[in-house]
Structures are given as C-alpha cells and as structure tokens.
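idk why but the lab printer keeps eating my pages so im just putting this in chat instead. protein + thiamine diphosphate:
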Amino acid sequence: MKKEKTMKLSLPEEELVGSGHLACQGCGAVLAMRDVLKALGPKTALCIPACCWSVIDGPFPHSTLGVSIFHCAFETAAASASGLKAGLEMVGDTETTVVAWGGDGGTFDIGIQALSGAAERNEDIIYVCYDNEAYMNTGIQRSSATPYGAWTTTTPVKHFKNRPKKDIDAIMAAHRIPYQATASIAYPEDLFKKVKKVKELKGTRFFHVFAPCPAGWKSRPEDTVKLARLAVQTTLFPIFEVENGEKYTLNINVKEPKPVKDYIRLQGRFRHLKDPDIELIQEETNRRWDRIRKLCS
Ligand SMILES: Cc1ncc(C[n+]2csc(CCOP(=O)(O)OP(=O)(O)O)c2C)c(N)n1
Ligand code: SF4
Ligand SMILES: [Mg+2]
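predcted complex ->
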C-alpha cells in the first residue's frame, strides 16, 4: 500500500488571524501577524497606528483578529503601547502582552520619536515593524525604508530613490534595549522562536520583520515567500538578533549568497534598473553583509 504523505507542523495550529481579512492576495504583512500571534497567544493587546493593518483587520465591529486592538494615531504606536501597558498594570493585569504593531512608515519615519522615547525609557512592550518598504496603504509613497533604486509614486522611474534604506537596526541598537531582532516571513520558525523566547522578558523588545507587498512591489502574489527568502539568501536582509545593543548573533548564515539580481528582477518596482545600477546595489549589499558578519562574530 502506498504510504500517505503527512506534513509535520512546526508552529502551533491555533490561528489568531481569521479568514476573511481585507489584505491583498499574497500580502506578507498578514503572514507576519500570523506567526507573531502564534507565538504570543490570545492574551495580547495590539496598538495599531495608521497602516495597511488598520484596514486589513476589517471595519468595526468586525475583526479578523482573535486579540484586542487599539487603533491609534499614526505617530503614536510606541507611546500608546507604553500607556496601555501602564494602564493594564494599574488594574492588576500583568499577563497581557502589549504590542505596538506598525508599518515601516509608522516606524522608520513618523513614529520614530515615540519609538525612541519608549526604547530609551525601556518600556515593557514588544514593538513589531512589518517592513514592506513604502507607505502602501495610501498608494505606495517612498519611506525611509524604501531601498535604493526602487520606484514608488513619489520616486517615479526618472527620479527613482537614490538614497539607501535607513538602518533602523543600528538606530535601535544605539538605544541598548534588552532585545531586538530582524526576521522574515519566509522563515516562520525563526520568527516564532524568537518572539516566544522574549515574550516574558521585561523591557523593550523590537522586531523588524521583512514582509513583501505584491501591490507595491509589482510582484506576483505567489512570489511573496520566494522574494522574502531571496532577500535573505542574497544577504540583502540579514537575519540576526542583538541583546543590550551589544551582543550580535547571526540567526541564519548564508554560506553562498545568491546575486541580488535574482531578487531584483522579480519585481516591477526595479524594472527600470540597468546592470550598473544593480552592480551598485550588489556592492552595497556585500559591504553591509561583511559589517553584520563582523558584528556577529
Ligand atoms: C498623521 C498622519 N499622516 C498621514 C496619514 C495617512 N496615512 C495613513 S496610513 C499611511 C501609510 C502607512 O505606511 P506604513 O507605516 O509603511 O504602513 P503600510 O501602509 O505600508 O502597511 C499614511 C501616510 C495619517 N493617517 N496620519
Ligand atoms: S498593499 Fe501591500 S501590505 Fe497592504 S494589504 Fe496589500 S499586499 Fe498587504
Ligand atoms: Mg509600509
């Protein structure tokens, strides 16, 4: 008799992201939420500033999420989460994990003051930035997380983004918070494991999660996970963690990096780039990878 193939689940079966959400097909931000909530469980409260996720969840009183949500102003994710945590403690709830959940625009740009303040005070919150590298919810405007060379509606083809992506990980390391990590929706076990590990840790914990957006990247929805994996395998997005701003650990080593071209050519937002432009991106990627590897060694 032919042996039946079975798939072993490495993440818990319980889903806190329900079906019927409002995201586009192939949205990486939904996978990020799914993995993080599997690690945190239902006793979680999210502060969500203006971003795709404030829409994805659905219109009140409906919600696709099995956890509480506080929709806050764009620039206030970390401040709102700090206040919510203090309020919960005042009423004797020390069990609920408070999470600020923002996009790259709400984190790298408009929410950075609140985030920096919360990190400096070492507020007892988890901050998750799902990074889709632009202001997607309002129609694909450039953010400081947008990579060099990308088209967006505010960096049109003739004037594509000519500045590098802001190094938010270095900025957070400078705050010497107890824990921070990069992660990717293509490596759910790594993301799950790291969130679970620091769930009970006190103080500010920051996650920078790479989450492709087919609508904004002009990529195929079925390529979302492939692109996220390629971003790691080309070393464009290294996966590492930092404790107290000092102890760097590489979580996913890439022994033979793939050329960045493999990643770039799958996305319409980079269609205008010529070979010399891609060569520049390759050189910058190699430089940053060397620096991260040295920090982790
Ligand atoms: C103070 C303020 N400025 C601008 C907006 C408009 N706005 C809402 S969502 C958004 C884009 C958010 O981008 P990001 O944080 O990267 O999340 P994404 O939409 O990509 O998921 C903008 C500009 C707003 N709601 N409030
Ligand atoms: S625009 Fe991008 S991030 Fe927003 S819901 Fe669609 S795929 Fe997800
Ligand atoms: Mg964004």
